Amino acid sequence: MPNRKFSDGEVVMGRWPGSVLYYEVQVTSYDDVAHLYTVKYKDGTELALKESDIRSQSSFKHRKSQSSSSSPSRRSSSRSRSRSRSPGRPAKGRRRSASQSREHKDDKKKTIQETSLALPVLVLFKPSENNTKRYNGEPESTEKNATSCIILEQKLKPDLEVKRVLEQYSLRSRKDDKKKEEIYSEKKTFVAVKPIEKVSTKTKELEFGGRIGTFMMIILLPATVFYLLLMCKQDDPSLLNFPALPALESLWDGRVFGVFLLWFFLQAVFYLLPIGKVVEGLPLSSGRKLQYRINGFYAFIFTAAAIGVLLYFQFELHYLYDHFMQFAASAAAFALALSIYLYVRSLKAPEEELAPGGNSGYFIYDFFTGHELNPRIGSFDLKYFCELRPGLIGWVVINLAMLLAEMKIHNLSVPSLSMILVNSFQLLYVVDALWNEEAVLTTMDITHDGFGFMLAFGDLVWVPFVYSLQAFYLVGHPTTITWPVAAAITVLNCIGYYIFRSANSQKNNFRRNPADPKLANLKFIPTATGKGLLVTGWWGFVRHPNYLGDIIMALAWSLPCGFNHILPYFYVIYFICLLVHREARDEHHCKQKYGLAWDRYCQRVPYRIFPYIY
């Protein structure tokens, strides 16, 4: 095991990932297994760096002086070197020569070049103005407008013009320029452009209860789905009335599994159609951006047309209701098989393509959370496809099947008002997600979580079969509501949807283009990563306003089922627990990523989801 070069608490110079710039950092810990140092920047950001990306302050300053000594203005002669140390000091007893005047101009040009080089640093690292003079100090500036970068660029524009003129009319010989280029290409100083090496670290902090917790969830998630569906089939779905367990062979039907496979591959065909725009996702840790085709809404239209054709030829869609348990079992089996495939293929994936939260080295944990971040077969992105297509569109189809089943079982000419509300609210939610499909590229599921059992089971089983629980419940337990009650529930759902959509749109637009003139009125706290934390609009009200809107809509979806049983309210109870847990994960990641800027944001926006409550 190699010895440590830097000790805990030592102040050194660390290279900022993805750049060639070094900043003063403090060593906080060392990982003996991965051989990585955890360092803390002045703004509170903590990162893991390799030893090759860390230098002592003394050697760093020495290299800097070497860089100065190797400049063209200090290589001509010993006498010119003595003058170059103080360009403004004339020679004693005699007038400044023409060569000295040229050296003076070269120094001016060098100063202007350094100023111009500072421009991309200020633009890329906007929050450098927010750095502290102490490791745990307060930022000098806490809020900025999106137009601040434009003003800065306008202020530096005259310097850039001077630089351009001096470069065009420089009196330095081409021989000196060539010699300078050769020296800079030979010497690897701290300002030289070097290829950035990707640092892949093991997942240190395990979520979901670690190995034991994830193992239990692999068992409990399918058990919960089947328990809920069995409860809905009972005449008395009380919690104390535990349903009888069906025979295992009754849960499997080869024909049903074939229908499920047909559905999955039909959505895959729609996904591969060359329609819709192609956009880039957020930058990966390597700096690369993946491309995604945005055609989910078209897939929904084609699916609706296909369902319409089936209904025209009198296909009994309530077949889904009659074999609902078998469809859930087929989806669960397929999700398990897909998860095994994903884990096996991830063992051969490059280190830089592994998920930051699913690279622990423990089989069960990585299998559950997902080992590979963006598994693809050619251009077919498996995680992105499953995120919105088979499960989300399938949810709408299941709701429609439940509506038709209710009409047939209860001999209704029109669906009940409760069923209409549930179908309408959830249809709006799905259509909104598909219409704003591009927004999913900025979510934690895409940018952080790997694709494993958690997302595969969630997308293919949990979403279509648990989110449709209200519609499934109403088939066997019809509930009558009045028009005033229906109007009140509709208003509640509209309020939740408005908060959800406007908050997400505000966040996604700001992430995509912070310099958009339409967002100039938004205030934000700059961070060391170059991103800003919004402190106005919905994001200045609570830290997760989109979660608040989601929970309000979830309540509106359950209210049409009445208050006879708590079972239809499982969704809203589960959703609150899910979003509170996800909010805690967000808090942890943001604290590590943004450092002191996140502390300032939490002081400015104290409430997490529920204003004045939580």
Automatic annotation (TrEMBL):
Protein's UniProt name: Delta(14)-sterol reductase LBR
Coiled-coil ranges (or none): none
One of the record's GO molecular function terms: DNA binding
Location within or outside the cell: Cytoplasm; Endoplasmic reticulum membrane; Nucleus inner membrane
Enzymatic class: oxidoreductase
Domain of life: Eukaryota
Top-level taxonomy: Eukaryota, Metazoa, Chordata, Craniata, Vertebrata
Residue stretches of biased makeup (Basic and acidic residues): 101-112
Species of origin: Dicaeum eximium
Keyword field: Cholesterol biosynthesis, Cholesterol metabolism, Cytoplasm, DNA-binding, Endoplasmic reticulum, Lipid biosynthesis, Lipid metabolism, Membrane, Nucleus, Oxidoreductase, Phosphoprotein, Receptor, Steroid biosynthesis, Steroid metabolism, Sterol biosynthesis, Sterol metabolism, Transmembrane, Transmembrane helix
Compositionally skewed regions (Low complexity) per UniProt: 66-75
GO biological process: cholesterol biosynthetic process
Transmembrane segments: 208-230, 256-275, 296-315, 327-344, 455-475, 481-500, 521-542, 562-581
Compositionally biased spans, kind Basic residues: 76-97
